[in-house]
């Protein structure tokens, strides 16, 4: 079973007619029919009941459609996560200073910058001589 076949299957389910689904996919109708037939053969069950020019999903077809939506949703999430990871800049910054500079000047500026540029949960450490403060930045989408 190939993703392209599932994509064609979903388009056919949404458009109900082979011609409309083929048009939406920008492919020839015989190509669509061939891929759907290969999918049916591979699954070993009837996916559509054809009544004239209409295609009605069987129970097997409904199950496949539901799982196809889940598959494409997961693929979309994977692409998004990979894209985030590729654009993520990593590193660690440690700043040593006296406590008053960190509390009153450096911390608010750094935290504001960090919140603006944050993609994922990150930790920013300020280590004044014996006192350690940790500021966390969390993106709402990761909660």
From TrEMBL:
Keywords: DNA-binding, Transcription, Transcription regulation
PROSITE patterns assigned: HTH_LYSR
Xref: Pfam families: HTH_1
Keyword Protein transport among record annotations: no
Signal sequence, renumbered to the chain: none
The keyword Transcription regulation appears for this protein: yes
Residues of the HTH lysR-type domain: 1-58
Family: Belongs to the LysR transcriptional regulatory family.
Name assigned to this protein: HTH lysR-type domain-containing protein
Species, as recorded: Staphylococcus kloosii
């Amino acid at each position: 079973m190939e993703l392209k076949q599932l994509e064609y299957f979903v388009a056919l389910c949404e458009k109900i007619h082979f011609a409309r689904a083929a048009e939406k996919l920008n492919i020839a109708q015989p190509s669509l029919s061939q891929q759907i037939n290969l999918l049916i053969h591979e699954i070993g069950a009837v996916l559509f009941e054809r009544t004239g020019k209409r295609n009605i999903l069987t129970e097997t077809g409904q199950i496949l459609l539901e799982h196809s939506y889940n598959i494409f949703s997961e693929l979309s999430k994977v692409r998004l996560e990979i894209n985030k990871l590729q654009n993520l800049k990593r590193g660690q910054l440690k700043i040593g200073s006296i406590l008053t500079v960190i509390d009153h000047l450096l911390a608010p500026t750094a935290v504001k910058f960090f919140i603006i540029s944050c993609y994922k949960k990150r930790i920013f450490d300020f280590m004044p001589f014996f006192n350690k403060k940790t500021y966390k930045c969390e993106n709402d989408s990761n909660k």
